[in-house]
Amino acid sequence: MAEDVAFKHIEKTSLIGKRIKKPDAPAKAIGKTRYINDMVLPQMLYGKILHAGRPHAEIISIDTSEAEKLAGVHLVITAKDTPDLKLGFVKDNAPLKSKVLCERDEVAAVAAESEAIAAAAIKLIKVSYKDLPGVFSAKDGLKKDAPQIQENFPGNKSLKFKFKHGDLAEAEAGSDIILDHVFNVHYVTHCCMGTSCAIADFDHNGKLTIYSQTQYPYNYKMDLAPALGIDPGDIRVIQPTTGGSFGAKLDVYPYEPVAAILAQKTGRPVKVLFDREEEFINSPTRQPAAIHLRTGCTSDGILTFRSADVLMDNGAYTSWGPTVPVIMMRTVSGHYRVPVIDFKAQAVYSNNAYAGSFRGYGNVQMTYATAQHMDMFAEELSEKHGMDPIEFHLKNAQKSGEVTPQKSYLRECVLAECLTTAAAASDYVNKHKTYTEACTEEGRYKRGIGLASSIHNAGGAKIHKSDGCGTILKMDDYARVTVITGASEIGQGIDAVISQIVSEELGVPPEHVTLVNNDSDIGPWDVGVHASRTTFIAGNGAKRAAIKAKKQILAAASKQANVTAEELDLRGGYVVQDKDGAAVIRLDRMLRQMHFQPTPDVVMVSDYYEPNSELEGKDHISDHSAAYSHAVHIAEVVVDTYTGEVKVEKVTMAQDVGRVINRMGLEAQMEGGLAFGLGFALSEEMIFEEGRLLNPSFRDYKVPTAPEMPEIEMHFIESDCEEGPYGAKGIAELPTIVIAPAIANAVYNATGIRFLNPPMSPEKVARAIWEKKQADS
Amino acid sequence: MSVKIKLDFTLNSRPVNIEVPAEMTVLNLLRDGLDLKGTKYACGEGECGACTIEVDGRTINSCLMMAVDLQGREVMTIEGMQEGHALHPMQQAFVDHGAVQCGFCMPGMIIQANYLVKQNPELTREEMKRGLEGNICRCTGYTKVLDAVAAVVGLNERRN
C-alpha cells in the first residue's frame, strides 16, 4: 500500500443539511456568465415578430413589400409561409396566425442583420384588419350569442375537470356551518428578469439546434416538432444559462418555432429576443379563476365537505394554464381531512391572454380560497363555541398514513407539527385575540396576524407516463466526477444539490463534481424542472448512480485489501476501513489501478430513477406523487387604514421539508417563493381592457422590491420521507402558495374585512375600509 | 445613416477611444459595442436596475444614459470590480451567502450594493433596503442579498 495512507484515519462526516454554495455563482457574480440573451452565433440574424395588438380580427391583407426592400432584411414571413403548422397540446395554436384571436397573436416575422433593422422592418409591414366583436371573460364566453373563438371548440368550451367523492347532500345536511363564497383570482405574470429568447440553427442535414430557455428539454422536442413539420428526433435542445423561469417555459410558445422557421428558410442562425414590453404582453400568465367554494363544518369543528366550482378564462389558446384544476382538486380534497368532495372546473375560450404554468400551479389560486374558509370557521367556532383556533386546525389535520379521497397517500405527514410550531413561535393565539379586540378601536394603523396552510406534491407529479430522470456518472483517473443528468437548472440550484449528494456518497469534495445538463444530445431523459420535483427525482437518481459507482470501487478495493466490500467506505478522497476510518488507498490511485490492468474496470454508471407514484388518470384517483408536504405560514401585518397600504412585517413559516439537503439553497427557495406570493397578494396585477394589457412595464406592474420584504422566521420540520433522497421532499412551491391567504387572514384580523379578490392593493384596501366605515355608521 | 461621434472615456481603468452612433445608449455600447455583456438589459426604462453601472463614482441605469455623454468620464462595470482573479469582497459575499440564483440581476445588484457601502460603510439593514429598492430580483426575495451586504458592512445585527 502507498505510503501516504500510513496512520491516516478519516472520520465519517456528512454534508447533508450543510450550506453548499452554488457552483455557478462566482461566474454570475462577476458578470462572466453568458446567458442566452447575451449569445451571438456566427452569421446570426435577428428575428422580430409583429404582434397583432388587437384582440379579435380578420386579417384582410398583409403587405410585406416595404419591409422586404429595407437593406439588411433577409426574410419576412406570414402564416401563408407556414401552412398546417400547429402548436399546443390541443393543437389550437400556430406559430403565425391567419386570424387574430388575442393581442399577442403573431402576424408576421422578420429576419434581419441587426435588432434595429428587424424592428424597423416590422414597422413597415402593413396589415389590414377587420375587427370582430370579442369575448373578454369566461362568463361572456359561455353566453349563447357569444362569438365562437376557436373553430374546433363550439360554445367556447375548453378543458373540463370533475371529481366527486361521497354524498354531498348528506354532508350538507350534517353541517352546522356552511360557508359559500366566490374568490376571483387575478392575472399575474412571471416577470423573469431575462426576457424570453430562442436561437435556432439548422444544419445541412436538416437537424435543428435550438438554444432555449425551456424547462423540459426532452418533451419540448415532441411539442416543437409539429410546429415545424419535422421529426422530434431532428431537434437538439441546448439550454444556456437562463434569467429565471418559474414555470414560464414549460410549454412551447410561438416565438420558438418562429425563430426556427426563420432559421430554416434563411439558412442562418436566428435569434428572437423579447423586450420588456413584449415580455409582458406575450408571455403566459398565471391562470385566473373564479372559484365558487362551499365548505361545511360541524359545531364540533369537524369539516364535512368541500365543493368547488371553478370557472377559468382560457384565453385564446390552450397552454398549461387551464390544466391547473388537476392540482386545485388535490387541494380541495387534501387540504385537511375532508370526507366529501365535489369539484368541477371549466375553462372557456376568450380573446384574452392565455395562461401557462406558474410556480404553485393552481394551488396558489385554490389555497387562497380554502385557507380563508379555514380562518372563517376558526373565527366562528371561537366566537360561538370558544374553540381554540389551532385546536380547530389540529382536529382536521391529517396524520401519517392517511389517504385522501383522491388517493394521495400521506406517508409521512407532519401538518400538526407545522401548525403547533408556527403558532407557538409567533404567539399566534394571543396576538390574534389582542388584534381582534383592537380591530374596532379608533386609530390609523391596525395590526393583524393570519394563519394559512396548504398541501402540495413533494415527490414529483406523474402527469406524464414517466416522472423519471436519467443520470450518467463517470469518474476519471484523478477522482473527479462528471454527472450527466436530465435535470434542468434554471437558477433553483440543482447543481449544488447534485454535487452535494454525489460528494456525500463518493467522499470527494463537492467542487470535484461537474454537472453536465444543458444539451439534449448528451443528457438522458427527464420530464423537466417543475412540480417541486428536481431535488427529489434527480437527487434520487444522482444518489443511486453514485451508490453504484461506490459499489464498483469498493468491490475492486476489497480484493486488494483482502476484506469484504462492506468493511470499506469512501471518505475524504480515500478508500478507508469503515469501522475506524483507517485509510486503505487514495481514491485516485484506486481508480487508476482499476483502469490500468489487463481487464480494465472503469467507473461509468447510469441510472434511471422512476418514482413509485401512479399516473394521474382521467378519474383523478391515484397516488400521483411519491410524497406530499405541508406548510404553515403566519403573517403579521400593519394596515394603514388611511392609505390602504398593507405592510407585512414578519412571516413565520413551518414547512415539512422531509430532510434538509442544502440548507442555504433551501432557505433561498423559501425566501424567493415567499416574495412571489407576496407580490401576488399585495401588488401584482395585469390589468386588461377588452383583451389589451394596460400595464406592460415594471412602472405599472409592481413586483416586490427589497423594502417590502418582511422578516422571515423559518422552521424546517423533518418528516424523513422514506422515498426521498436522505429523506428529503420537494419544497419550492409551497412558500408561494401559502403566504397570500396568510396575509389575507391577517388583514381580516386587522380590519374585519375579507378580501376575496386579490391583490390587496392600497386602492382596494382603502376603498373597502372606507365602505365599511360608511356601512357601519 | 446615423451620425457618429468620437468618444474618449475610461472603462474599468482602461482608456477607450471609439466612435458611437449619436442615438446609442451606454447599455448598448457596453453590450454590443464593447462586448461587456455582464451589464444586463431587463427593462430599458430605468425601472429594474439590471443595467446599473458606476459613472464617475455614482451609480446609474445605463439604459437611460446616452453613450455620447460618457465623454471624459470614468466608468466601472461588473467586469471591472475584480482585482485580478480574485472576486471583489462584495461579489464573494454574494456567492458565500447564497444570494445568487438565476443571477441575471446580480451584476446590477452588486454594483449598487458596492456603491451603497462605499457611500456609507456603516449602512443599516433598512438603508440597504432603501438603497437596493431600484434593483428588481425575481429569484431571491432579497433576504440573502441583504445578508451578503450586511456581511460586507460587518453588521452582525439580527435579521430585520
Structure in a nutshell:
Helix content of chain A is about 30%, strand content about 25%. Chain A has about 775 residues and is α+β, with helices and mostly antiparallel strands.
Report on the structure:
- The complex is a heterodimer of chains A (777) and B (160).
- Chain A is α+β, with helices and mostly antiparallel strands.
- Chain A has three domains: 3-33 and 468-609, Aldehyde Oxidoreductase, domain 4 (2-Layer Sandwich), CATH 3.30.365; 36-132 and 195-241 and 249-282, Aldehyde Oxidoreductase, domain 3; 289-461 and 618-776, Aldehyde oxidase/xanthine dehydrogenase, molybdopterin binding domain (Aldehyde Oxidoreductase, domain 4, 2-Layer Sandwich).
- The radius of gyration of chain A is 28 Å and the shape is globular.
- Chain B has 160 residues and is an alpha+beta fold.
- Chain B has five helices and five strands.
- Chain B has a five-stranded mixed sheet, sandwiched between helices.
- In chain B, a hairpin with a 2-residue loop joins strand 3 (52-55) and strand 4.
- The longest helix of chain B has 14 residues, at 106-119.
- Chain B is globular, with a radius of gyration of 16 Å.
- Chain B starts with a strand and ends in a 7-residue tail after the last helix.
- The chains are: A alpha+beta (777), B alpha+beta (160).
- At the A-B interface, helix 1 and helix 17 of A face helix 2, helix 3, helix 4 and helix 5 of B.
